[in-house]
Amino acid sequence: MPQKNNNVFSSEIINALSIDCLIIGFQESKLKILLVQHAEGIIKNQWALPGGWVAYNENIDAAAYRLLNDLTGVKEIYLEQLKAFGEVNRYPSKRVITIAYFALTRPENFELHPGFTASDAKWFSILDIPKLPYDHDQILDFARQILKRKVKYEPIGFNLLPEKFTLLQLRDLYEAILEKKLDKPNFRRKITKMNLLIPCNEKQQSVSHRAANLYRFDKLVYDKLKKKGFIFEF
Amino acid sequence: MPQKNNNVFSSEIINALSIDCLIIGFQESKLKILLVQHAEGIIKNQWALPGGWVAYNENIDAAAYRLLNDLTGVKEIYLEQLKAFGEVNRYPSKRVITIAYFALTRPENFELHPGFTASDAKWFSILDIPKLPYDHDQILDFARQILKRKVKYEPIGFNLLPEKFTLLQLRDLYEAILEKKLDKPNFRRKITKMNLLIPCNEKQQSVSHRAANLYRFDKLVYDKLKKKGFIFEF
DNA sequence: TACCTTGTAGTCAAATTGACTATAAGAATT
DNA sequence: AATTCTTATAGTCAATTTGACTACAAGGTA
């Protein structure tokens, strides 16, 4: 095992490790992902996952938050590590290992203001993504797979839906993630039996049909189920 | 985004990234984990997860295989990435990010011969692990959690059990992972209904009670279920 | 007022579950 | 040779859950 070596060319250590963020949103019944155009560098003017370098004295989780905020203006978001991608040639000019982070959020909560390192930031439908640079396509595929699996053993939606939502909105979300249709009454029966939802005693506004009841998550039950896990099969 | 910089102090880049392996086995109805004593370095003579440095021009997956083999003599094993651990101070002398890998295997398949970088390698019961250095305790906890979750949405056992095994051995495995008792007839009913097991039409040998039938996994069904996922709740 | 559209409740047979009991098959003991 | 272990395997049964439906409610809109 190597001994300590003080001849550290620190900036290069920093450069060897990057972060890429998969920021997932849900809007108009569709899954969205946030992409940015970097202002400079090799992939200038190309849409890519938001990301950048980890600083030498920065925890990787902290780096993910910082980069996300710098590039998109998105703050106070829940991030979770997905996986490290470390193929030798995944990045053209040198060896870079990237750690992919994954977040679920509400697009309408954020006014995107690309930071000084990105020239633009935009939500894309997950069904219609431009060709991404490096191995970003592969990272995105992996993230979608994980999301599909996640939905089956943890509650989901707390970060994706508005605070108050209808059962049909929640079903739409599940359908978008699982990529299949779910029976309306059966979904309702199953989800309400979980004790996860609290009725708001309020109705949807300005819809041109019967207004649905609004619900919100019981944060306590939600967190408990998230930790303990459950089984949700359709 | 930084440009290419050729003043790379490569050995230091290498040193900044390490791999740690969690090699899980199942023996005498107990989950085991493989630990090593490093021959040299800061934690000489202390039991720790097998691991080491990733070379500059080496894929991280390849590095995991190489290191595992160098340290323990274990070859041809299925490794899967668990997570990157990147707290700034997780390693004493400098900033090291480690990528944890995770494998399920059969201890009896390997004759451990610690390589030149390890002075010893040994299987420990997962219920009785010595204090591990760095953040290895935390990594191990994380791995146990993941295993517990994994068992619920994927078949497990193919790499942990002998080729031919009894239903009770399989149940013992599930009990060890889930850390709870499972009803014998109900377990049998559930697992056999999955079409995952093929009866060998052979019986257990030299047991001092009624001999049980031996089964093996249907590799095709197993792989399909592993890919597609299922739900296994007790 | 009729007729859309979506929300919500309820039905019912089939399948699954959880908690059991009962019996079978050997080996070991008497 | 009979009895007594121990573990294997089959089966029972009520309660719950599921999947595939039907029916009706509650609005807006034509």
Structural write-up:
2 copies of one chain form a homodimer. With 234 residues, chain A is of the alpha+beta class. Helix content of chain A is 29%, strand content 26%. The first copy, chain A, folds into 2 domains: 10-147, Nucleoside Triphosphate Pyrophosphohydrolase (Alpha-Beta Complex), CATH 3.90.79; 167-228, Orthogonal Bundle (Arc Repressor Mutant, subunit A). The first copy, chain A, has 6 helices and 9 strands, in the order αββββαβββαααββα. In chain A, strands 1, 2, 3, 4, 5, 6 and 7 form a 7-stranded mixed beta sheet that branches. In chain A, strands 8-9 form a two-stranded antiparallel sheet. In chain A, a hairpin with an 8-residue loop joins β2 (30-38) and β3. The longest helix of chain A is centred in the middle third of the chain and has 18 residues, at 136-153. Residues 1-15 of chain A have low confidence and may be disordered. Chains A and B meet through α1, β5 and α3 of A and α1, β5 and α3 of B. The structure holds a DNA duplex (30 and 30 nucleotides).
Write the layout of secondary structure elements.
Two copies of one chain form a homodimer.
Chain A: H1 10-15, E1 17-27, E2 30-38, E3 47-48, E4 51-53, H2 60-72, E5 79-85, E6 97-105, E7 118-125, H3 136-153, H4 167-178, H5 184-192, E8 197-203, E9 213-217, H6 219-228
Chain A binds a DNA duplex (30 and 30 nucleotides) through helix 5.
